[in-house]
Amino acid sequence: MQKNKKFNDSYNITGNNILRIRKEKKVTQEDLCARMQVMGYQISRSDISKLENGKKFIADFEVYRFAKALKVSISDLFDGIDL
């Protein structure tokens, strides 16, 4: 299995948008963590912090769950990203 690669020194490209949207909606990391756990996905507040700061890889199913927890479309999490 290939090791996760970085893009622009980050392990993910959606973390900045997760952070931005979370703050726009005035949702704390703890609240987002609770929303994710209610949906059956166990994630810690520190893992959310790592994702938002690009220090943790995010899988496609996690992107889906974050979009659902933040009540936005998946494309919103990719907004403004130019590869």
Supply the key terms.
mainly alpha, 83 residues, 434 Repressor (Amino-terminal Domain)
Describe this protein's structure.
The protein has 83 residues and is an all-alpha fold. The chain has a domain at 15-72: Orthogonal Bundle (434 Repressor (Amino-terminal Domain)), CATH 1.10.260.40. The mean pLDDT is 92. It is globular. Helices cover 52% and strands 0% of the residues. The relative contact order is 0.23.
Q: What is the CATH domain class of the domain at 15-72? A: Mainly Alpha
The span between the termini is: 24 Å
Structural class: mainly alpha
Order of H and E elements: HHHHH
Count up the helices: 5
What's the architecture of the domain at 15-72 in CATH terms? Answer: Orthogonal Bundle
Count the E strands.
0
| CATH level 3 topology of the domain at 15-72 | 434 Repressor (Amino-terminal Domain)
Percent of residues in helices comes to 40-55%
Largest sheet geometry: none
> If you average the pLDDT, what whole number results?
92
Query: pLDDT below 50 for ≥5 consecutive residues: which ranges?
Result: none
Strand percentage lies at: under 5%
Radius of gyration: 12 Å
Short synopsis of the structure:
The protein contains 5 helices and no strands. With 83 residues, it is an all-alpha fold. The chain has a domain at 15-72: Orthogonal Bundle (434 Repressor (Amino-terminal Domain)), CATH 1.10.260.
Describe the secondary structure blueprint for this structure.
Elements: H1 15-24, H2 29-38, H3 45-52, H4 60-70, H5 74-77
